[in-house]
């Protein structure tokens, strides 16, 4: 039973079909079909029921899936074995929110790559909910989230820095101490599932704002551009708008203190074996993040 066939099998399950799996893996669909046929011949039974355009795991497929996941993980770990004195190697799959991918991770990745060039890193984005699920399913090794601190039964979570949130307005708006949102404002939201979107909606609800005039964006950068154009108002992590605040392209107001502030967190599964490469990456993150709180405090004082 070949690992690459099991990877194909798992990918079909994850993506929900042969065509999506082929697109994701960069294979021809005939190759995907051939891999599954090989597994079915070895097991003597089909792995999928094909119901029109939909597929569903058979009982044999359901039984094989957890073993396939374990075998894929073991094969991955075996390729990362190194002697203590050797340079780490292998792969690390990292999941992160868009804002952290753009504003926090690049210096970390640069430092790590300069030291450990034999480690391959794959970076993917997702919501807090999606990334927690992918950690639990073993689809990613490490996740970086901007969220309020929550108890994690099966995940190890390290707090790296508190992330102040800021209300955003077009540059021509003058904010006084008693400035409040208006029912006539157009509210620019991040996508559903984003942790700080829910927080923004709760703040508006407390102010009695229904927020009927809204637009939803998947991109933080798109929201910033729309605020700068005068389209509407929003709320984002301060780290994402530092340059625009300094250049006065956007007007900002730090959100009121919260009992549960937002923080950048680094998470991994408590039961996951940490490879030498992953250990090195965790230590690189801790080193790079050690000055983030001070930098943020200095920036807030300067503006």
Automatic annotation (TrEMBL):
Keyword terms: DNA-binding, Transcription, Transcription regulation
Pfam families for this protein: HTH_1, LysR_substrate
InterPro entries noted in UniProt: LysR_HTH_N (IPR000847), LysR_subst-bd (IPR005119), WH-like_DNA-bd_sf (IPR036388), WH_DNA-bd_sf (IPR036390)
HTH lysR-type domain ranges (all copies): 1-58
Domain of life of the native organism: Bacteria
UniProt xrefs under SUPFAM superfamilies: Periplasmic binding protein-like II (SSF53850), Winged helix' DNA-binding domain (SSF46785)
Family according to the record: Belongs to the LysR transcriptional regulatory family.
Protein name: LysR family transcriptional regulator
Provenance organism: Terrilactibacillus laevilacticus
């Amino acid at each position: 039973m070949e690992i690459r066939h099991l990877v194909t099998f798992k990918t079909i399950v994850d993506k929900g079909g042969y065509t999506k799996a082929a697109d994701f893996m960069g294979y021809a669909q005939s190759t995907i079909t051939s891999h599954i046929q090989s597994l079915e011949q070895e097991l003597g039974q089909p792995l999928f029921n094909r119901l029109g355009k939909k597929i569903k795991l058979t009982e044999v497929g359901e039984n094989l899936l957890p073993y396939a996941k374990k075998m894929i993980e073991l094969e991955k770990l075996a390729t990362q074995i190194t002697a203590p004195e050797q340079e780490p190697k292998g792969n690390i799959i990292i999941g992160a929110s868009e804002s952290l991918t753009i504003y926090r991770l690049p210096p970390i990745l640069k430092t790590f790559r300069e030291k450990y060039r034999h480690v391959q890193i794959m970076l993917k984005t997702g919501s807090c909910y999606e990334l927690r699920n992918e950690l639990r399913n073993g689809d990613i090794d490490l996740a970086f989230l901007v969220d309020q601190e929550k108890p994690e039964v099966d995940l190890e979570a390290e707090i790296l820095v508190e992330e102040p949130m800021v209300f955003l307005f077009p540059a021509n708006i003058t904010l006084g101490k008693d400035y409040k949102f208006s029912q006539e404002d157009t509210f620019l939201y991040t996508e559903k599932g984003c942790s700080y979107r829910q927080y923004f909606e709760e703040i508006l609800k407390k102010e009695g704002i229904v927020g009927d005039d809204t637009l939803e964006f998947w991109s933080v950068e798109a929201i910033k551009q729309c605020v700068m154009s005068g389209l509407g108002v929003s709320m984002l992590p301060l780290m994402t708008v530092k340059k625009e605040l300094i250049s006065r392209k956007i007007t900002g107001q730090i959100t009121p203190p919260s009992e549960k502030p937002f923080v950048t967190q680094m998470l991994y599964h408590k039961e996951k074996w940490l490879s030498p490469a992953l250990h090195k990456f965790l230590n690189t993150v801790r080193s790079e993040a050690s000055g983030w709180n001070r930098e943020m405090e200095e920036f807030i004082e300067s503006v």
